[in-house]
Design goal:
The chain is built from 13 helices and no strands.
Length: 399
Amino acid sequence: MDFAKDLIVNIGNWLGDVLASTGLPDPWLRIVSLAGAGLVLALLPIIIVIFLIWAERKVVARMQDRLGPNASGVYAGPYAIFQTIADAIKMLTKEDVVPAAADRWVFNAAPVVILSVAIAIWAVIPLGSGLIGADLNIGILYVLSLGAGGLVSLMMAGWGSNNKYSLIGALRAIAQLISYEIPQVLAILAVVMVAGSFSMQDIIEAQDVAFVFAMPVTAMLFLVASLAEVGRVPFDLAEADSEIVAGYFVEYSGMKFGQFYLSEFINNTALCAIVATLFLGGWRGPFVDTIPVLGSLWLLLKTLAVFFLFMWLRGTMVRLRIDQMLRFNWKFLVPLALVNICVIALVDSAVPASGVAGWVRPVSLLTANVALLIGTAIVLTVSGRRARSASGQSIAAGR
């Protein structure tokens, strides 16, 4: 609650600075600013999610040579932009079905918990120059700690449904989340080592050169692990056509299912903003020093660019099986993340942040990352040849 209060107060102060030129008396200016901040926090996530759902359906449809949402009988607005609103109304008015044998308290609390966790992440994400709910000195650690709340909500949904398929789906989703949290944490650790702080604002300030250019391997590790954390393609196993049920939320309908769906897109948007913050410089950009409000615009553009990458992956990639998913993590991502940490630590010790020219440190990090990529490619090539040779020998022996 303190984070929500701080966020409303900070947004209110920002709106107060914007409205100061209107000439309103100070008490009224304060009231209007805080009321506007509350309205922004209430409506902004919903508006963003409605737009992104529509945009994803349209963009992925075009990638796959389909029309996507379109007017069919009832007019759905230009380019069917109101179709998502109609879908939301339909979902909210559907019957709420609760299994007779379900644990009602746990069953009903699970969607509330997962939605609360999704919203709480935004408390520490810098939305602009000086526009942040709570500038914690452990901001990125706070984001990681909320992942435990997501795990609890998944287990609550699977267990509370009293359905063996829901429970199996929950256990499988938890195994996926726990596995991919390891390379995700290791990638964030590399960023913290270079930036010298856990604070999201300090990480942004440290990016005179965006970390995606200085540490592309770290950015790739974090992006892939985060895709698995939010269940995006190719890791959205619960939505696979071969699955009997839809995982841990198979028993949910109506508004409760809508909360799971809404939290998924809020998490996707938050993840895009976190990627933009950690690796793309966050709100930093041209003319922000002279026009601070442009910082929010730059963050929005970077977030939308990352979300477009997510849509591109969804429209072009195939899903992995659960065994492929876990094997890829433990046999490739985790070893690569550990080696990456060692490489970043060596460069950080050899080229400290102070005492060198501004371009030396980013170039050193980039050179080390390129060497790591070349070494990884050589190891994969050699291991692939050995695997093919062993497979050929076993086939020949079988004959």
